[in-house]
Each structure stands twice: as structure tokens, then as C-alpha cells.
Amino acid sequence: MSSDAPARPQALAPVRWRDPKRHWWWFALVVPLSPFIAWGLVKTLHLGLFWAAGVLVIAVLVPLIDLVTRADKSNPPEELTKALENDRFYRYCVYAYLPLQYLGLVFACYLWVHAPMGIPERIALASTVGVVGGVAINTAHELGHKRTKLERRLSKIALAQSFYGHFYVEHNHGHHIRVATPVDPASARFGEAYWFFLPRSVVGSLRHAWHIESGRLRRRGQRVFGPHNNILNAWALSVVLFATLIAVFGWSIAPYLAFQAVLGFVLLEAVNYLEHYGLLRSRRADGSFMKTSFRDSWNSDHLCSNLFLYQLQRHSDHHANPLRRYQTLRTSEVSPQLPAGYAVMIWCAFVPPLWRRVMDRRLLAYYDDDLTKINMKPRLARKLGLTPPGLIGPATSAAVSRRTPSSPPARRR
User: Distance between CA 26 and CA 329 in Å, rounded?
Assistant: First the structure.
């Protein structure tokens, strides 16, 4: 062959990559197994403290593992995203949460009635069950973003334990459109303590979810108070669940069911609080908000807490690509970073002076001390002589009412 003959184009070599965390995702099932773990520890060690095993796992064990492991900055190759998304193994890791979740709930009901424990120990067990329910909302979050009917139905089932079925509507069709803006109740404002954010988010999200769902049904010519209402049918699952458990085990379990449900959504709202604290999307010249970017969510690359939460802490990519499955979510250097995993940051949020000491400096540094770029509490903005962010430009609600490219596409529900 002549030495000056043109070389044939070389075919690109296939990318060889295997998810190093592939079998670590099963560790997330420690959470729904925690009622059984609690029972085993108490029976073996005879120490009632371990009825709170679920809290100990999330608040102690996970942060300790995060502390001794390196941050996970690895991303899967982009060219393998589709294949990774289609690998059903990852779906089974999520699906498995639900049967264990409800087996644990039934087991806890049995223990509340029959196990020899005092009221403090019953409350401790209820806290373990509440942690399971709170993390189940995250499982519902992962499932509710998907297009398959099965996964959307499983999402409602996961939400039933915490009686937070309206999350199914509001998160996908409200929060994702209005995130990091002053009109989103689930986006915390700079200077806003968690305990003031909590009622604002709970009430505001419920109100907006009802507005979305009732509007959808009216446009379709269907009854608002009917079986097609995704809020009412999700709540109906909770009513049936609680009524069945009380019918089987008696009214004595009712206070503990209520306690665990409240704890579940309190944890969920704490996660909402830390995910977007003080962050504000950029605006166009007409006052409308830019597409949600990787800069509009706080991220955390701590390994263990990401495994337990199906990579919820890679939250920026989730908002930029809401249909992506957890195994393909990517970390980005442009995203603001939390100093610790969600488990630690939730406890910081519960203590407002500690939260502000840890996070306010970090937020200001991220925006180079430019207060006009921050989603600030209106009263604080006025005190500092600034225009509250919700009053800048055209009506803010109208400015975020249209779907942005980052929002989940409209789908038949």
C-alpha cells in the first residue's frame, strides 16, 4: 500500500464504563428496614433508645460515613446516559422501597399495640416510622417525575403514609415552574427561618396544587370533586390506609400514625428549605425569569447521603433535566455547594441561628455580596433599602406562569 494513501476513518471505540455505585443503591433500603432493625437492636441490647433507629441512621450513621468518605464528583459518560436510563436494575432499587415501607409500617403498628414499651419508646418508634415516611416522599419524588403510569401510581402510594398526596401535583406542575422565584412557596428566602418557612410552604403548596388540579379538570370538562382529581384520589389512599390500620390495631395507634405523618412532611419541607435557600433565577429584560439553570439549586456531593436519597442532592441537574433518572444525574462545578449532606443540613435548619451562621455567608459569597441577586425575605429587603424581589418588573406570577424549558412536559394525567 502506498505510504501517501489516505487513511481510513477510524470507528470510535465503544465507551467502556460500569457504574461503580451500581450495587450500593441497595443501601437506601436500610431506611425502610429501620423499624425491623430497631426491634432487633432493642431485643438484643435491651436499650429503648434504639426504637429511634431510623433517626439514628439518618442523623448519626449517614453523616459519619459522609465525613470519612470523599466527595463523589464522578459523572457517567454522556454517551451512555440513554443506556443507563434504560437499565431496569435501577428502577427495581426504587420499587423495592415501597413494600418494605409498608411492611415496616404494619410491623410498627403491631409493636405499638403488643410490645412492652412506654409512651416515650412508642414515640421513638413513631419517629423511626416518620423518617421512613419522609424518605418515602423522596422516593415518590423520583417516581412521580416519570412518564410511565406504573411509576406515577407508585408515587401516590409512597405518599400515602405521610398524607401528603398533593405533593404529586404541586411538585411537578408548580414547584418546577416557579422554583427559585419569590412566588414559589417551596423556595426559601434569605433571612427566612425554617419554622416560618414551614407553614408558608405547606399552606402555599397545598393552595397552589388545588389551583392547578381544579384548573386542569375544568379545562377537561370534568368534576373538580371527582375520582379524576389527583389530589383527592391521593388523599383517599391515605384515608383508606389509616382507616384500615386503625380498624385492625385499634384507636390506640392513631396518635402515633399522626405523629409519624407530620414528621414525614416536616422532614420533606426541611429538604425543600435547604435546596433553594436564597437563590434567585436571573431575569430577562421583560421581567420574566430565565430557564432554571445549574446555579439555582444547592448541591451536595457527599456520597452516603446521596446513596440514601437516590442522588436528590444533585438537585441542580434534576431541575435542569427533571425527567432524568437518579442514576444519570450529574454534578456541576457551577452549582452552589452545601458544606455537608442533607442529613446534617436539616439539623442546621432546625436551629435558625446555626443555619444563618453556616449558610448566609456562603450565599452572599456565591453572589459576590450583590444583594439584588438574592431571593430575600421582603421585610428584610425593605429594612436594607432594597426593592423586594417579588416587586421587580411585571407581575411576578405572570412572569413565571408559562412553562419554561426546564419544566416537565405536559402529560396526560
Answer: 17
**CA–CA gap between residue 32 and residue 303 (Å, rounded):** 19
CB 301 within 8 A of CB 170: no
Alpha carbons 266 and 272: distance in angstroms, whole number: 10
Cα 306–309–312 angle (5° rounding)? 75
Which of these, 184, 206, 403, lies nearest to 296 by C-alpha position? Answer: 184
Distances from the Cα of 2 to the Cα of 5, 6, 7, 8, 263, angstroms: 5, 9, 11, 13, 77
Q: What pLDDT is attached to residue 288?
A: 85
HSE, side-chain direction, 13 A CA sphere, residue 302:
22
Which pLDDT belongs to residue 140? 94
Beta carbons within 10 angstroms of residue 100's beta carbon: 19
Kindly report, residue by residue over 95-112, the tens digit of the pLDDT: 999 999 999 999 999 999
pLDDT of residue 379: 87
Kindly give, in sequence order, each residue whose CB lies less than 8 Å from that of residue 116, ignoring residues fewer than 6 positions away. Answer: none
Residues 6+ away with beta carbon under 8 Å from 160: 234, 237, 238, 241
- Find out whether 341 and 66 touch, Cβ atoms under 8 Å: yes
pLDDT tens digits, 198-246: 999 999 999 999 999 999 999 999 999 999 999 999 999 999 999 999 9
Which residues of the chain, if any, have pLDDT below 70?
1-15, 388-413
- Pairwise CA distance, residues 63 & 65, whole Å: 5
Rounded Cα gap, residues 212 and 170, in angstroms: 8
308 touches 64 (CB < 8 A): no
pTM of the model: 0.89
Q: Are 4 and 31 in contact (CB under 8 A)?
A: no
Contact call for residues 172 and 183 (beta carbons, < 8 A) = no
The C-alpha cell at 399 is 412572569
If DSSP states are collapsed to H, E and C, what string results for 168-225?
HHHHHHHHHHHCCCCCCCCCCCECCCHHHHHHHHHHHHHHHHHHHHHHHHHHCCCCCC
CB 205, CB 166: distance < 8 Å:
yes
